[in-house]
Known about the structure:
By secondary structure, the protein is mostly beta strands. It has helices spanning about 1-20, 145; strands at about 80-90, 90-95, 100-105, 110-115, 120, 135-140, 150-155, 160-170, 175-185, 195-200, 205, 225-230, 245-250, 255-260, 265-270, 280-285, 310, 320-325, 330-335, 340-345, 355, 365-370, 375-380, 385-390.
Amino acid sequence: xxxxxxxxxxxxxxxxxxxxxxxxxxxxxxxxxxxxxxxxxxxxxxxxxxxxxxxxxxxxxxxxxxxxxxxxxxxxxxxxxxxxxxxxxxxxxxxxxxxxxxxxxxxxxxxxxxxxxxxxxxxxxxxxxxxxxxxxxxxxxxxxxxxxxxxxxxxxxxxxxxxxxxxxxxxxxxxxxxxxxxxxxxxxxxxxxxxxxxxxxxxxxxxxxxxxxxxxxxxxxxxxxxxxxxxxxxxxxxxxxxxxxxxxxxxxxxxxxxxxxxxxxxxxxxxxxxxxxxxxxxxxxxxxxxxxxxxxxxxxxxxxxxxxxxxxxxxxxxxxxxxxxxxxxxxxxxxxxxxxxxxxxxxxxxxxxxxxxxxxxxxxxxxxxxxxxxxxxxxxxxxxxxxxxxxxxx
Length: 394
Ligand SMILES: [Ca+2]
Protein backbone atom coordinates (compact mmCIF):
# COMPACT_ATOMS: atom_id res chain seq x y z
CA UNK A 1 0.00 0.00 0.00
CA UNK A 2 2.78 2.38 0.97
CA UNK A 3 4.52 1.55 -2.27
CA UNK A 4 1.40 2.53 -4.27
CA UNK A 5 1.12 5.80 -2.35
CA UNK A 6 4.74 6.57 -3.03
CA UNK A 7 4.37 5.88 -6.74
CA UNK A 8 1.23 8.06 -6.86
CA UNK A 9 3.09 10.82 -5.12
CA UNK A 10 5.95 10.60 -7.59
CA UNK A 11 3.52 10.75 -10.52
CA UNK A 12 1.83 13.83 -9.08
CA UNK A 13 5.19 15.49 -8.44
CA UNK A 14 6.25 14.67 -11.98
CA UNK A 15 3.09 16.25 -13.41
CA UNK A 16 3.61 19.37 -11.31
CA UNK A 17 7.23 19.61 -12.44
CA UNK A 18 6.16 19.25 -16.07
CA UNK A 19 3.76 22.15 -15.78
CA UNK A 20 6.46 24.46 -14.40
CA UNK A 21 7.96 26.73 -17.06
CA UNK A 22 11.44 25.68 -18.02
CA UNK A 23 14.19 28.13 -17.14
CA UNK A 24 15.46 30.30 -19.94
CA UNK A 25 18.45 28.52 -21.40
CA UNK A 26 20.91 31.37 -21.20
CA UNK A 27 19.72 33.14 -18.06
CA UNK A 28 22.80 31.90 -16.23
CA UNK A 29 24.70 34.86 -17.54
CA UNK A 30 22.23 37.38 -16.19
CA UNK A 31 22.79 36.37 -12.58
CA UNK A 32 25.05 39.31 -11.96
CA UNK A 33 26.63 39.49 -8.58
CA UNK A 34 25.63 42.79 -7.06
CA UNK A 35 28.69 43.12 -4.87
CA UNK A 36 30.66 46.19 -5.86
CA UNK A 37 34.38 46.67 -5.71
CA UNK A 38 36.24 49.96 -5.24
CA UNK A 39 36.50 52.00 -8.40
CA UNK A 40 39.88 53.35 -7.37
CA UNK A 41 42.70 51.02 -6.33
CA UNK A 42 42.39 50.40 -2.65
CA UNK A 43 45.34 51.74 -0.64
CA UNK A 44 45.05 49.01 1.95
CA UNK A 45 46.16 45.42 1.40
CA UNK A 46 43.83 43.21 -0.53
CA UNK A 47 40.72 42.21 1.37
CA UNK A 48 39.85 38.55 1.62
CA UNK A 49 36.37 37.61 0.49
CA UNK A 50 33.98 37.35 3.37
CA UNK A 51 33.36 33.61 3.65
CA UNK A 52 29.96 34.15 5.29
CA UNK A 53 28.64 36.40 2.57
CA UNK A 54 25.15 35.13 1.89
CA UNK A 55 23.86 34.05 -1.47
CA UNK A 56 27.42 33.58 -2.58
CA UNK A 57 27.28 32.24 -6.11
CA UNK A 58 29.31 29.25 -7.10
CA UNK A 59 33.01 29.98 -6.95
CA UNK A 60 34.29 31.38 -10.20
CA UNK A 61 37.62 29.60 -10.28
CA UNK A 62 38.71 27.56 -13.23
CA UNK A 63 39.21 23.83 -13.44
CA UNK A 64 42.63 23.04 -12.01
CA UNK A 65 43.53 20.44 -14.58
CA UNK A 66 46.52 21.21 -16.75
CA UNK A 67 45.56 23.25 -19.81
CA UNK A 68 46.40 21.74 -23.16
CA UNK A 69 48.78 23.64 -25.41
CA UNK A 70 46.92 26.05 -27.68
CA UNK A 71 48.70 24.74 -30.79
CA UNK A 72 47.19 21.28 -30.50
CA UNK A 73 43.78 22.19 -29.06
CA UNK A 74 40.71 22.13 -31.25
CA UNK A 75 37.97 24.52 -30.21
CA UNK A 76 35.65 22.98 -27.64
CA UNK A 77 32.64 25.21 -27.52
CA UNK A 78 30.18 25.19 -24.63
CA UNK A 79 26.57 24.53 -25.56
CA UNK A 80 25.45 27.84 -24.09
CA UNK A 81 27.16 30.96 -22.71
CA UNK A 82 28.92 30.08 -19.49
CA UNK A 83 30.01 32.62 -16.91
CA UNK A 84 33.66 32.11 -15.99
CA UNK A 85 33.99 35.11 -13.65
CA UNK A 86 31.68 37.88 -12.51
CA UNK A 87 31.50 40.86 -10.18
CA UNK A 88 34.33 42.44 -12.17
CA UNK A 89 35.02 46.10 -12.89
CA UNK A 90 35.92 46.96 -16.50
CA UNK A 91 38.17 43.99 -17.25
CA UNK A 92 40.55 44.85 -20.07
CA UNK A 93 42.87 41.95 -20.73
CA UNK A 94 43.12 38.34 -19.62
CA UNK A 95 45.95 35.83 -19.81
CA UNK A 96 46.25 32.17 -18.90
CA UNK A 97 48.94 31.09 -16.47
CA UNK A 98 50.81 27.83 -17.10
CA UNK A 99 49.44 26.43 -13.80
CA UNK A 100 45.82 26.79 -14.96
CA UNK A 101 45.11 30.08 -13.20
CA UNK A 102 44.07 33.24 -15.00
CA UNK A 103 45.11 36.83 -14.58
CA UNK A 104 43.10 39.80 -15.76
CA UNK A 105 43.42 43.54 -15.52
CA UNK A 106 40.59 45.67 -14.19
CA UNK A 107 40.85 49.24 -15.46
CA UNK A 108 40.55 50.89 -12.01
CA UNK A 109 43.95 49.41 -11.15
CA UNK A 110 43.72 45.82 -9.97
CA UNK A 111 45.36 42.74 -11.34
CA UNK A 112 42.91 39.95 -10.54
CA UNK A 113 44.27 36.45 -9.99
CA UNK A 114 41.68 33.67 -10.30
CA UNK A 115 42.84 30.27 -9.20
CA UNK A 116 40.81 28.30 -6.64
CA UNK A 117 39.46 31.68 -5.50
CA UNK A 118 40.12 35.30 -6.31
CA UNK A 119 42.80 37.72 -5.24
CA UNK A 120 43.09 41.35 -6.30
CA UNK A 121 46.60 42.73 -6.54
CA UNK A 122 46.52 46.55 -6.63
CA UNK A 123 48.97 48.07 -9.11
CA UNK A 124 50.65 51.12 -7.66
CA UNK A 125 50.36 54.43 -9.44
CA UNK A 126 47.48 53.66 -11.79
CA UNK A 127 45.32 56.66 -12.68
CA UNK A 128 41.83 55.53 -13.71
CA UNK A 129 40.91 58.54 -15.83
CA UNK A 130 38.19 58.00 -18.42
CA UNK A 131 39.47 55.39 -20.85
CA UNK A 132 42.83 55.25 -19.08
CA UNK A 133 43.82 53.02 -16.21
CA UNK A 134 45.25 49.54 -15.94
CA UNK A 135 44.85 48.35 -19.54
CA UNK A 136 47.05 45.82 -21.36
CA UNK A 137 48.59 42.69 -19.90
CA UNK A 138 50.93 40.19 -21.53
CA UNK A 139 53.06 37.27 -20.44
CA UNK A 140 56.49 36.82 -21.97
CA UNK A 141 56.58 33.88 -24.45
CA UNK A 142 59.07 32.23 -22.05
CA UNK A 143 57.09 33.15 -18.95
CA UNK A 144 57.60 29.69 -17.47
CA UNK A 145 61.33 30.38 -17.34
CA UNK A 146 61.57 34.13 -16.66
CA UNK A 147 58.17 34.91 -15.02
CA UNK A 148 58.04 38.23 -16.89
CA UNK A 149 54.66 39.95 -16.95
CA UNK A 150 53.96 43.21 -18.79
CA UNK A 151 51.35 45.86 -18.00
CA UNK A 152 50.15 48.97 -19.84
CA UNK A 153 49.42 51.61 -17.23
CA UNK A 154 47.94 55.12 -17.28
CA UNK A 155 49.43 57.39 -14.61
CA UNK A 156 49.38 61.01 -13.67
CA UNK A 157 51.96 63.69 -13.07
CA UNK A 158 51.07 67.25 -12.07
CA UNK A 159 49.23 68.70 -15.05
CA UNK A 160 49.58 65.69 -17.33
CA UNK A 161 48.33 62.18 -17.96
CA UNK A 162 50.79 59.63 -19.34
CA UNK A 163 51.00 55.95 -20.19
CA UNK A 164 53.84 53.48 -19.83
CA UNK A 165 54.54 49.79 -20.20
CA UNK A 166 56.06 48.08 -17.17
CA UNK A 167 57.60 44.67 -16.77
CA UNK A 168 57.43 42.73 -13.53
CA UNK A 169 58.51 39.35 -12.27
CA UNK A 170 55.34 37.48 -11.27
CA UNK A 171 56.31 34.66 -8.95
CA UNK A 172 54.52 33.10 -5.95
CA UNK A 173 51.52 35.27 -6.86
CA UNK A 174 53.48 38.45 -6.23
CA UNK A 175 54.84 41.18 -8.46
CA UNK A 176 58.41 42.33 -8.01
CA UNK A 177 61.36 43.84 -9.91
CA UNK A 178 59.34 46.53 -11.66
CA UNK A 179 61.13 47.69 -14.80
CA UNK A 180 59.86 50.35 -17.22
CA UNK A 181 59.85 49.19 -20.85
CA UNK A 182 58.59 52.38 -22.49
CA UNK A 183 57.45 55.59 -20.83
CA UNK A 184 55.92 58.99 -21.51
CA UNK A 185 53.30 57.91 -24.00
CA UNK A 186 50.91 60.87 -23.86
CA UNK A 187 47.65 60.05 -22.15
CA UNK A 188 44.22 61.54 -21.77
CA UNK A 189 40.74 60.66 -20.62
CA UNK A 190 40.28 59.39 -24.20
CA UNK A 191 42.30 57.44 -26.79
CA UNK A 192 44.92 55.75 -24.63
CA UNK A 193 45.42 52.70 -26.83
CA UNK A 194 46.70 50.09 -24.41
CA UNK A 195 46.86 46.68 -26.07
CA UNK A 196 50.17 44.84 -25.61
CA UNK A 197 50.92 41.44 -27.14
CA UNK A 198 53.97 39.43 -28.07
CA UNK A 199 54.06 38.55 -31.75
CA UNK A 200 55.21 35.27 -33.28
CA UNK A 201 58.59 36.99 -33.74
CA UNK A 202 58.97 37.32 -29.96
CA UNK A 203 58.71 41.12 -30.07
CA UNK A 204 56.34 43.16 -27.93
CA UNK A 205 53.71 45.11 -29.89
CA UNK A 206 51.95 48.06 -28.25
CA UNK A 207 49.00 50.12 -29.47
CA UNK A 208 48.95 53.78 -28.50
CA UNK A 209 46.18 56.32 -29.08
CA UNK A 210 46.26 59.92 -30.19
CA UNK A 211 45.29 61.05 -26.68
CA UNK A 212 42.75 63.44 -28.17
CA UNK A 213 45.44 65.22 -30.22
CA UNK A 214 44.87 63.87 -33.77
CA UNK A 215 47.88 65.46 -35.49
CA UNK A 216 50.24 63.62 -33.16
CA UNK A 217 49.45 60.38 -35.02
CA UNK A 218 51.35 61.71 -38.07
CA UNK A 219 54.38 62.82 -36.06
CA UNK A 220 57.06 60.16 -36.32
CA UNK A 221 58.84 61.61 -33.29
CA UNK A 222 55.84 60.90 -31.10
CA UNK A 223 54.96 57.56 -29.52
CA UNK A 224 51.26 58.36 -29.89
CA UNK A 225 48.84 57.21 -32.56
CA UNK A 226 51.16 54.33 -33.37
CA UNK A 227 51.75 50.65 -33.12
CA UNK A 228 55.11 50.24 -31.38
CA UNK A 229 57.41 47.21 -31.51
CA UNK A 230 60.06 46.56 -28.87
CA UNK A 231 62.36 43.87 -27.62
CA UNK A 232 61.35 42.27 -24.33
CA UNK A 233 63.71 44.60 -22.42
CA UNK A 234 62.35 47.76 -24.07
CA UNK A 235 65.24 48.17 -26.50
CA UNK A 236 64.52 48.87 -30.18
CA UNK A 237 64.71 45.94 -32.61
CA UNK A 238 67.30 46.40 -35.37
CA UNK A 239 64.72 45.77 -38.08
CA UNK A 240 62.17 48.42 -37.04
CA UNK A 241 61.38 50.67 -40.04
CA UNK A 242 62.29 54.08 -38.61
CA UNK A 243 65.11 53.25 -36.21
CA UNK A 244 62.69 53.97 -33.38
CA UNK A 245 60.04 51.97 -31.55
CA UNK A 246 57.46 52.97 -34.19
CA UNK A 247 56.21 50.02 -36.30
CA UNK A 248 53.25 51.70 -38.01
CA UNK A 249 51.79 55.17 -37.85
CA UNK A 250 48.62 57.20 -38.45
CA UNK A 251 46.41 55.38 -35.94
CA UNK A 252 43.64 57.08 -33.99
CA UNK A 253 43.11 54.55 -31.21
CA UNK A 254 43.92 50.94 -32.03
CA UNK A 255 43.02 48.47 -29.28
CA UNK A 256 43.13 45.06 -30.97
CA UNK A 257 46.12 43.01 -32.13
CA UNK A 258 46.04 39.49 -33.57
CA UNK A 259 48.24 37.38 -35.86
CA UNK A 260 47.02 34.92 -38.46
CA UNK A 261 48.56 31.57 -39.47
CA UNK A 262 50.88 33.35 -41.92
CA UNK A 263 52.18 35.60 -39.14
CA UNK A 264 50.37 38.65 -40.50
CA UNK A 265 49.35 41.26 -37.94
CA UNK A 266 45.77 42.54 -37.91
CA UNK A 267 44.56 45.44 -35.81
CA UNK A 268 41.22 46.94 -34.91
CA UNK A 269 40.95 50.71 -34.63
CA UNK A 270 38.33 53.17 -33.44
CA UNK A 271 37.13 55.58 -36.11
CA UNK A 272 35.97 59.14 -35.42
CA UNK A 273 33.33 59.89 -32.84
CA UNK A 274 31.01 62.79 -32.10
CA UNK A 275 29.56 64.39 -35.24
CA UNK A 276 31.64 62.04 -37.40
CA UNK A 277 30.77 58.63 -36.00
CA UNK A 278 31.50 55.34 -37.69
CA UNK A 279 34.41 54.41 -39.92
CA UNK A 280 35.80 51.89 -37.45
CA UNK A 281 38.58 49.90 -39.06
CA UNK A 282 40.29 46.56 -39.35
CA UNK A 283 43.81 47.06 -40.68
CA UNK A 284 46.46 44.70 -41.95
CA UNK A 285 49.55 46.09 -40.29
CA UNK A 286 52.83 46.25 -42.16
CA UNK A 287 56.00 47.92 -40.92
CA UNK A 288 56.48 51.55 -41.79
CA UNK A 289 53.03 52.04 -43.23
CA UNK A 290 50.86 55.04 -42.52
CA UNK A 291 47.21 54.26 -41.80
CA UNK A 292 46.01 57.75 -42.43
CA UNK A 293 44.63 59.26 -39.22
CA UNK A 294 43.62 62.09 -39.04
CA UNK A 295 43.91 62.83 -42.78
CA UNK A 296 41.77 60.01 -44.12
CA UNK A 297 38.51 58.36 -43.07
CA UNK A 298 37.31 54.87 -43.76
CA UNK A 299 38.25 53.69 -47.25
CA UNK A 300 39.57 57.06 -48.40
CA UNK A 301 42.90 56.53 -50.11
CA UNK A 302 45.82 58.68 -51.02
CA UNK A 303 49.31 57.81 -52.17
CA UNK A 304 51.53 56.97 -49.22
CA UNK A 305 48.66 55.88 -46.99
CA UNK A 306 47.12 52.50 -46.35
CA UNK A 307 43.36 52.03 -46.18
CA UNK A 308 41.71 49.52 -43.86
CA UNK A 309 40.75 46.10 -45.21
CA UNK A 310 37.22 46.56 -43.90
CA UNK A 311 35.52 49.43 -42.10
CA UNK A 312 32.12 49.94 -40.53
CA UNK A 313 30.98 52.77 -42.79
CA UNK A 314 29.42 56.02 -41.61
CA UNK A 315 26.20 54.49 -40.37
CA UNK A 316 27.53 51.87 -37.99
CA UNK A 317 29.82 52.02 -34.99
CA UNK A 318 31.64 48.99 -33.68
CA UNK A 319 33.94 50.81 -31.24
CA UNK A 320 36.26 47.83 -31.66
CA UNK A 321 38.66 46.71 -28.97
CA UNK A 322 40.35 43.35 -28.32
CA UNK A 323 40.83 40.85 -31.12
CA UNK A 324 41.86 37.24 -31.57
CA UNK A 325 42.26 34.91 -34.54
CA UNK A 326 41.07 31.29 -34.43
CA UNK A 327 41.67 29.08 -37.47
CA UNK A 328 42.25 32.23 -39.54
CA UNK A 329 38.95 33.75 -38.50
CA UNK A 330 39.20 37.13 -36.80
CA UNK A 331 36.95 37.77 -33.82
CA UNK A 332 36.86 41.19 -32.20
CA UNK A 333 34.95 42.91 -29.44
CA UNK A 334 32.58 45.84 -29.87
CA UNK A 335 32.01 48.34 -27.07
CA UNK A 336 29.38 50.69 -28.45
CA UNK A 337 28.50 47.99 -30.97
CA UNK A 338 27.80 45.64 -28.02
CA UNK A 339 28.65 42.60 -30.11
CA UNK A 340 31.28 40.11 -31.14
CA UNK A 341 32.34 40.49 -34.76
CA UNK A 342 33.59 37.64 -36.89
CA UNK A 343 35.26 37.73 -40.30
CA UNK A 344 37.67 35.35 -42.06
CA UNK A 345 41.07 36.88 -42.69
CA UNK A 346 41.51 35.36 -46.15
CA UNK A 347 39.62 37.53 -48.60
CA UNK A 348 38.32 39.62 -45.71
CA UNK A 349 35.32 41.71 -46.78
CA UNK A 350 32.04 42.99 -45.44
CA UNK A 351 30.34 40.22 -47.44
CA UNK A 352 31.75 37.64 -45.04
CA UNK A 353 31.47 39.85 -41.96
CA UNK A 354 29.13 38.62 -39.19
CA UNK A 355 27.66 40.26 -36.08
CA UNK A 356 27.23 37.89 -33.13
CA UNK A 357 25.52 38.29 -29.74
CA UNK A 358 24.35 41.83 -30.56
CA UNK A 359 23.14 43.51 -27.34
CA UNK A 360 23.17 40.23 -25.39
CA UNK A 361 25.97 41.12 -22.99
CA UNK A 362 26.24 44.92 -23.28
CA UNK A 363 29.58 46.47 -24.11
CA UNK A 364 32.33 44.00 -24.89
CA UNK A 365 35.97 44.89 -24.34
CA UNK A 366 37.88 41.87 -25.41
CA UNK A 367 37.89 38.34 -26.80
CA UNK A 368 40.51 35.74 -26.01
CA UNK A 369 40.91 32.02 -26.63
CA UNK A 370 41.27 29.72 -23.65
CA UNK A 371 43.82 26.89 -23.55
CA UNK A 372 40.89 24.55 -24.24
CA UNK A 373 40.14 26.50 -27.40
CA UNK A 374 37.05 28.32 -26.16
CA UNK A 375 36.23 31.90 -27.08
CA UNK A 376 35.98 34.01 -23.93
CA UNK A 377 34.67 37.58 -23.84
CA UNK A 378 35.08 40.33 -21.25
CA UNK A 379 32.21 42.76 -20.81
CA UNK A 380 32.71 46.46 -20.09
CA UNK A 381 29.54 47.56 -18.36
CA UNK A 382 30.75 49.04 -15.08
CA UNK A 383 31.94 48.66 -11.51
CA UNK A 384 31.20 45.25 -10.05
CA UNK A 385 28.93 44.06 -12.88
CA UNK A 386 31.32 42.84 -15.52
CA UNK A 387 31.82 39.25 -16.50
CA UNK A 388 34.06 36.87 -18.35
CA UNK A 389 31.89 34.57 -20.42
CA UNK A 390 32.75 31.48 -22.48
CA UNK A 391 30.70 31.48 -25.67
CA UNK A 392 29.31 28.61 -27.72
CA UNK A 393 30.02 28.52 -31.41
CA UNK A 394 27.06 30.45 -32.76
CA1 LIG B 1 42.92 54.49 -41.04
